[in-house]
Amino acid sequence: MKYLYFLITLFSLSGFSQTIGIQSFATGFSSIVEIVNAGDDRLFVVQQTGVIKILNANQVTNPSAFLNISALISTGGERGLLGLAFHPNYATNGYFYVNYTNTAGNTVIARYSVNTSNPNLANTASATILLTISQPFANHNGGTLRFGPDGYLYIGMGDGGGQDDPGNRAQNKDLLLGKILRIDVDNGAPYAIPPTNPYAAADGADEIWATGMRNPWKFSFDTVDGNLWIGDVGQFNVEEINKVPVGDGGYNFGWRCYEGNDAHITEGCEPQNTMTFPFVTYSSADGSGNCSITGGYVYRGSAYPNFVGKYFFADYCSDKIGMVADNGTISYSGVLTGGSFTTFGVNAANDLFVGSQGNGVIYKVVDTSLGVDDVSKNTFSVYPNPASGSFSIHSENARFPLQLTVFDISGKKLLEKTIGSGNENINISGFSTGLYLVNTKDDMGMQSVSRLVIQ
């Protein structure tokens, strides 16, 4: 019983002290920079070295790469294969798009097709280059590609690197650096300009949708309201999260005039009231260990109701995941295993994943507060506890039948069945050693949660 008390106490203090946790989902990757789904049950894992691997729903990775363009790219630092997006009609046209730095260090946006006879392989001979953008420095390449709810392809471009954006490229409307670009890949050769782009009929580069970005490493669209969320990496003091409606664009997010909300180099800048300031910021100069935001997603899954509608992000250096509420309040996890989180991803069911460059593991983001009830209020209890092989349910009031569900500590449902009496044994012979949650619900709707140790 001392062993059980120790485990329950430890679990209560550590596992439930924060609601944000992670559970290892797949291992064996290298330099993870992107996790994308193609509308089915597979995850496509982008490695900075130029390789895209397929991770199946059974957590097994295909031995052969989906795409390998390592010979085309420059790697190291912030260069490499950086982005992947599947066409909204991928199931019928087989098109997908990649963002990489070529051997000269310049950004390339290219379209590929899937192999017509094997959906787990790309057609490496199908490459069509859409854009090549000169990069003056090796860093701040951006990298994210996303299709918006308007069907256009959005491209995140950093300011080209160098401290303080020498040349003020992010504010220069004639340059594609330091911008969010938007192009129409379904028309034109190799693309067309959406007619509502802010400079489509005015002075400035037609591809620009928004200006004033430093390094929008990750951005995503909320699948419910269509808002665009951008994690823009700061320079010394401020990491920022921008939230804007898609619309026609024309946003100026402020860099280098402002770092977050703080004035930075304002000489020659447009008026402050013409700029769009962050939805929320956090400090990278407060001793917390923060240094670089990894933008994520608004959670729209069904497994964790407490997460729904909240935006998730991570910091590369502090190894924490943050959760932003509608009012801009940020809640953080504790320091998490693996660390150096470089990307988030979602599957077709909107489960949320995060990739660690520190150990090559993809984790599932989970709500560790699932099923936490006061044990003293339980109507039912489990015995023996600890258990091995099987357990039973005890009730002082013997209100059977009841619905029984067993979860692991990440919230994954492992067993569900109807229990007719307290004499019925529940088989757990295939369960690993550890701590579990047993939920019971009787015919009156009374629910109870007990902690079960399996040894």
TrEMBL record:
<dbReference type="InterPro" id="IPR012938">
    <property type="entry name" value="Glc/Sorbosone_DH"/>
</dbReference>
<dbReference type="Pfam" id="PF18962">
    <property type="entry name" value="Por_Secre_tail"/>
</dbReference>
<protein>
    <submittedName>
        <fullName>Cadherin</fullName>
    </submittedName>
</protein>
<feature type="signal peptide">
    <location>
        <begin position="1"/>
        <end position="19"/>
    </location>
</feature>
<dbReference type="InterPro" id="IPR026444">
    <property type="entry name" value="Secre_tail"/>
</dbReference>
<dbReference type="InterPro" id="IPR011042">
    <property type="entry name" value="6-blade_b-propeller_TolB-like"/>
</dbReference>
<dbReference type="Pfam" id="PF07995">
    <property type="entry name" value="GSDH"/>
</dbReference>
<feature type="domain" description="Secretion system C-terminal sorting">
    <location>
        <begin position="382"/>
        <end position="454"/>
    </location>
</feature>
<dbReference type="InterPro" id="IPR011041">
    <property type="entry name" value="Quinoprot_gluc/sorb_DH_b-prop"/>
</dbReference>
<keyword id="KW-0732">Signal</keyword>
<feature type="domain" description="Glucose/Sorbosone dehydrogenase">
    <location>
        <begin position="36"/>
        <end position="322"/>
    </location>
</feature>
